[in-house]
Amino acid sequence: MLEITESWVDSLAPNSAAIKNGHELVKKGKFTAFHQTEDRQVLFGICTGSGKTPYIPSADFMTPGNPVMRCTCPSRQFPCKHGLGLLYAYVEGKSFTQAGVPEELAAKREKAGKREEKKAKELAGEAESKPKKVNKSALKKKIAAQLEGLDVLERLTHTLVRRGFGSLDSKELKMIQEHVKQMGSHYLNGAQIQLRKLQLILSSEDKEKAYAHAAEQLAVIHAFIKKGRAHLLQKLEDPELTMDHESTIEEWLGHAWQIAELRAANLTTHEVEMIQLSFISYDDPSRQEYFDLGYWIQLDSGEIHSTVQYRPYKAAKLMREEDSFFDVARIPQLYRYPGDMNRRVRYESFTTRKIEDTDLSGVRKFAVNSYAEAVKKVKNQLKNPLADPNPVMLLHFEEVTADEAGRFFISNSRGESLELFDLLEISTVPLLKLIPQDQLQDAVMLVLFDHHTLSGRLRVQPLSLLNGKEIIRFIY
């Protein structure tokens, strides 16, 4: 069986309450027995509950890195606190005696084993599987509806520009909201998000600041209309209606990439190890979703990827929250989404190992030494209005300094410096005061870039600090 760490178990939990409750079950001695099979593929136990009959949680490692968690309790959480408690007990070194699996669990394992065997054969090409056929007629109708929606969106933006932001009132804001609903009918999810964002900006009480951001937002919408229309028209001319596997335009137009599509486009990397450098959770009203965003570095290439989980408001309570991860994730197959810097990635399973000093020294080697080169790379991405406006990079610095006004700067050996700002709702810059001075020299910092509309300057916010021994996270 694979190495189980507490951090890895935490990553399986649906929320922080489940983590706490799982630990409490072990601490309070609610488990009356711990067992494992002879091949150590299955862990199971007996845990007292609120009823007369005890619960039997189990963890089946038939597929390493992607255990099947089961429990006889009625909880709707997955995995439940009993399953988590079972794994925490194993991590703590509790004694697991050898035993055969219960009959009911054995029957479920047999069915699951057949499914996994079929899946493995399909992945290895041993089973014949016809590629999913695209209904070209339906897709053409969808594209026609999207083009019509882009025309509607363009007329709206022209109307708003002609009237001017200063004359907009509640009537115009209501009109924008009505168009948000229309974009859904035209299969333009990206347009819905951007229009809702515009409405939120214009609803701000700080009108002077709002107008500057609204102008920038209209520029994004205009770029979306232009690029989206060109892409859709080009696709209609293609007999195969080929998807764009390089840019993010398909996602802007509402396409949700499936693993099979990413695999078919050769957007996969095998046997990857990654370390999470930072983790942020936040609320995005324009998407009406919660974001769980992690930044990871690939140890063999130095690429900084992102993992994103969207939790819609309506379903957030039923979805597992992502969280910070403190080990090395060993991933059999990594899937990359189309994009530029900090490409979004996903994976189906992973195992873990502890971070070693050699891992951290390897990460340091990938840090950018020239701030001029870093700024140039970021500016090249920001030339595309549809690109991520807040890329992150690893920068090496010689020291962190503060001036008389209390502003913090990082500087390199070339005499270049960057001022540090608090750009996100979570403040990180003041935390630098709490770090010993010797750790603020000759180190590496993960920073988030942002273009300040009013000044036209690029600004950076520190997300984490990497010295030779540890990763110090400012947000987690």
UniProtKB/TrEMBL annotation:
Residues 107-131 have a biased composition (Basic and acidic residues). InterPro entries: Znf_SWIM. Residues 55-91 form the SWIM-type domain. Keywords: Metal-binding, Zinc, Zinc-finger. PROSITE patterns: ZF_SWIM (PS50966). Residues 107-135 are annotated as: Disordered. This is SWIM-type domain-containing protein. It comes from Paenibacillus vini.
